[in-house]
Amino acid sequence: MQFASRLDNVETSAIRELFKLLGKPGIISFAGGFPDSAMFDVEGLKEASQKALTEEAGGALQYGATEGYEPLRNQLSSFMKTKGVDVDPSGLIVTTGSQQALDLLGKTMISPGDKVIVEGPTFLATIQCFRLYGAQLISAPIDANGVKTDELEKLIAEHKPKFVYLIPTFGNPSGAMLSLERRKKVLELAVKYQTLIVEDDPYGDLYFGEAPPPSIMSLSKDVPGSRELLAHCGSLSKVLSPGLRIGWMIAPPELLAKATMCKQFSDAHTSTFAQATAAQYLKSGRMPGTLAHVREVYGQRAQAMGAALKRELGGAVSFTQPNGGLFFWARLTGANGKLADANELAKRAIEKLVAFVPGAPFFAEKPDVATLRLSFATADIEKIEEGVKRLGQAL
Ligand code: PMP
């Protein structure tokens, strides 16, 4: 079949093949990007969906506005206020997962050949999505404090990108957290170079100890002229339920209008039933309790994984203990003649019945084959310890 040429730039994900092996009996998987289904607040969501059907069936089951269901836009506006972002309900649109917000950004902003700066490494689906629209992706290096803003400035000055895409808080896959100082610097760069910055923030609420610095969107109130150059994507997926498919995007009015137009031709609107349920849930006041619960459980798992990695793999891997999110990002050091190729290790690990994702596909440029991503979200502490032990054996 003769497919559209836009598909020429995109391959099916290299890690898909690996996922096929995850069904092996007895396997312990650190490979997925899923939250743990056992954490879903099923009772709260039952009540919320019931209320949606009894109190507002006409809205919850009917076609709705492309921008989003009004009660949910109101709730999301209040939710963002608790996180220091002042946004009118009309200043955000509801999207079908934050993934759709990324797609809409691609659709509205990227013409074939346009340059977009992303972090190296970054979220794989973003790489694929932006490439589908013909973007030439430029990779900005990161460390444990997020994107290196000095390097970022050089790249912005050189490439004049259409926009810069960042996951500042507990990046996927990096787990890195952009420091407050660098967040401010990013805002200065936006203004200095008049460059749109996209802040993708599905993990910001998922912190384990101290809260992370305020989002870039929240800090924009201190940097005149920066708010007009910012888009912010949020999601209920990681803290409440990814199956609800509720995300949102805050952006300048002009961009929001174009994105809404594109969404109209794509899915008309996000499921009104899911939106009404999410709105009822946020209204119910259960969210703070849910957040406290997921922070605690994932925090314990992250601790357990960090300790196990140190114990079982010692100097063979380097990593920074993440303070939130779902992932460890590690690098094989090759010390003492140990393996330094994560692809090879992934194959051996599957034989030992443990799985993780090699890091190379997360780089838009210059892949680092020594890197790997380990999710601590879905295995309990016992499985985490056993899985890391197997990983040590594989190594
Ligand atoms: N952005 C990042 C960085 C992610 O890790 C994910 C989910 N893995 C998404 C966006 C999309 O999430 P959702 O569409 O479920 O909101």
From TrEMBL:
Record's signal peptide: none
Keyword annotations: Aminotransferase, DNA-binding, Pyridoxal phosphate, Transferase
InterPro entries: Aminotransferase_I/II_large, Class-I_PLP-dep_aminotransf, PyrdxlP-dep_Trfase, PyrdxlP-dep_Trfase_major, PyrdxlP-dep_Trfase_small
GO annotation (BP), single: alpha-amino acid metabolic process
Co-factor requirement: pyridoxal 5'-phosphate
Keyword Transferase included in the entry's annotation: yes
Chain ranges of the Aminotransferase class I/classII large domain: 41-391
CDD domains listed in its UniProt record: AAT_like (cd00609)
Listed GO MF terms: DNA binding; pyridoxal phosphate binding; transaminase activity
Family: Belongs to the class-I pyridoxal-phosphate-dependent aminotransferase family.
Subunit structure: Homodimer.
Protein name (record): DNA-binding transcriptional MocR family regulator
Organism: Variovorax boronicumulans
